[in-house]
Amino acid sequence: MKKKLLLLLIIILSFDASAQISFEKGYFITNAGEKIDCLIKNIDWRNNPMDFEYQLVQNGTLMNENIKSVKEFGIYNNSKYIRSTVRIDKSGNNINNFSDEKNPIFVEEQLFLKVLIEGKSNLYQYEKGNLQRFFYNKDNGNIEQLVFKNFKNYENKTGENNQFRQQLWNDLKCPSFTLNKMTNLKYQKNSLIAYFMEYNKCNNSEFINYENKVKKDLFNLSIRPRLNNSSFFVEDLVSNSPDIDFGNKLGFSFGVEAEFILPFNRNKWALTIEPIYQNFKSEKAVNGSFFSGREQIATANYNYIEIPISVRHYFFLNNNGKVFINASYIIAISSNSSLEFTSPPNIFSKSVELVTRRNFGFGVGYKFKNKYSLEMRLQTSTNIVADYGYWDSNYKTSSLIFGYTLF
């Protein structure tokens, strides 16, 4: 099974990146003002781009345009970027790099700004690495940066320049806006979007919220029944007692998975947590047992709840299907778990507690229409008699997991 899982992983990773990133209907406007409809390679830019790739027709020649030749481009019902020469403050956000200067230090650059709100007053975003800046204009006027800056004061303590609040109070104010509202306004995308939406509504201006053009489903809850194949092996490290191999047992279990999609890189990364109840029960006759010379019956009864915390990566194949891989850190909690030795007819018995140990898991799966999934998962082995230094054990599980996403 390990070889099959490895082979499947190699096949998945050999997919060309273009299989994960689609070309979507969009447009760009040249310096001459000509609007060209095309198919733009949508890579869900986390950092504002300086260029983009496109095709004029599906599966056509791949071409490239950049900020020197294009003054605007967009993907319909998704995103829009405009070219603008702006004054931007690039002061660092790392506390070790805070400036002693409270005021922004502007440099002039030509950038593609991402449009967040478009209306009587517009809100734009620029992001590169850890640097995030917001810009605005009103009635198609000059685009200016909303000023926010961290700095160190004369006592070497950190401070904040929240000039953006004063800028908005002066330029974009409605009768219903209060000083308390401005004090609570944060230099964050969602907070500023809400402010600009309210301002445009206050002025009876139609506006577009590009962040809502595409519904981003960032949370999924799924039920996940599974078929498990578990094995348990015990070895005495001190005496010559025979090893106990309980063999492989098939079992059924049930999990509920919460998936949190990370809102960047076209939603290809996710974090998941999934509580699962598991049980392994098996008996084995042992000659010359661990505790006596008599024949004994060894009974393993391992009950536990495991909680895999996983990082997931999706590979988009088409609009309906996507492959994913998981890497999991697994926490387990046992209850009433033991390894018991009994000599018929109950002349001698001994019970050993089975304890959980943290381990790792790896899975490969396929999801169809964001609703149905099938996953193969393999876990690393654990020693569940580790509290007994003169014993060693190997407990491991592989699973075939079926999933149905509720929402």
Describe this structure in words.
- It is a single chain.
- This protein is mainly beta and 407 residues long.
- It folds into three domains: 19-76, SH3 type barrels; 90-214, no CATH class; 219-405, Beta Barrel (Porin), CATH 2.40.160.20.
- The protein contains four helices and 24 strands.
- The chain has helices at 2-13, 163-171, 179-184, 189-202; strands spanning 23-30, 35-41, 51-55, 63-66, 70-75, 79-89, 106-118, 121-128, 131-138, 144-146, 149-152, 158-161, 208-209, 219-236, 244-261, 269-273, 276-286, 296-316, 321-334, 338-343, 348-353, 359-368, 372-379, 391-405.
- The strands form three sheets. Strands 1, 2, 3, 4, 5, 6, 7, 8, 9, 10 and 13 form an eleven-stranded antiparallel β-sheet that branches. Strands 14, 15, 16, 17, 18, 19, 20, 21, 22, 23 and 24 form an eleven-stranded antiparallel β-sheet that branches.
- A hairpin with a 3-residue loop joins strand 22 and strand 23 (372-379).
- It is elongated and about 95 Å long.
- The chain starts with a helix and ends with a strand.
- Residues 15-19 have low confidence and may be disordered.
